[in-house]
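My current task is to audit a protein record that another person submitted. Thanks in advance; the entry in question is below:
***
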Amino acid sequence: MSAKSKSKDNKDHIEVLQEKLQGIKGQEGIIGYLLRGSNSASIDLKDPTKIIDYAVLSATAFEVGQDMLAMLEIGELDSVIMESESTKILSMVVNNHRLSIFMEKSVDHNKLCKDLDLT
């Protein structure tokens, strides 16, 4: 496979992922998501006034996860789940894009991964 077709396959995969994210964003308990690549970002939140807050939370989750794995020398980051009293964030890397999905604590993040076909 040529580098050009690999790039196209990656783009197609991200477009499919974005379509799936659009499908889940209306589900009960989903607050929104952030999908960030090296050159672009896509964010969809129910409360757009909190974009910066959620972007910082997403970046921090990835950094802390990477730092802990490096310190413990136990492999690469697959996903990170952070929970508070009422909400949680699922963060993962998909085709070199960082994906964070923000949700109420009651949402089943394992089902969400299956819905996105990321398991």
